[in-house]
Prior knowledge:
single chain, mainly beta, SHC Adaptor Protein, 2 domains, five-stranded antiparallel beta sheet, 3 helices, 12% helix, ATP binding, SH2_dom_sf
Amino acid sequence: MSDNKTRMSAPKDALEHQLYYHGFRSRADAELLLKNNGDYLVRATDNRQCTELVLSVRHKNVVRHLSLMYESSKWQFGILRSTSHKLRQFDNVPDLVQYYTNNEKHCPGSVALRNPIAKPNWQINNNNVSYDKQKDAIGSGNFCSVFKGKYKRLGVEQDEIVAIKMGLSEQTK
């Protein structure tokens, strides 16, 4: 693939393949999905002008949003940095989630990760879509651009041709 071609492949144990990973999802959308104490999901957000991962969990009837931080090639919760409390670090996000699912007393705020909320079937994984930013541009407006792309549907040999609509702020990432 050329440098402009966009498709990511990830190992089967990567975050993108975890049922609780929802990709880009707003705080409000996450809160609607987390109905019972212990329900959780991991989502991406770009509210602070950069992409970050957030673990959203319902705890004591309130949804908490815990930022995940990547530092020194390790993942950890992005909280309690100013305290003397040393946070455990992990090679990847699924390992972090698995550890705190099994060890809730060590999770910040003692939140319990009990029920992973699966991504809806209609939501497409980004790594199943590819396009060339230079060759596949169809058009653009004040808020977004549209590209011709290919969607690799699981269990189907031939890629499907799709239109990909991207907000202008997403294109600079």
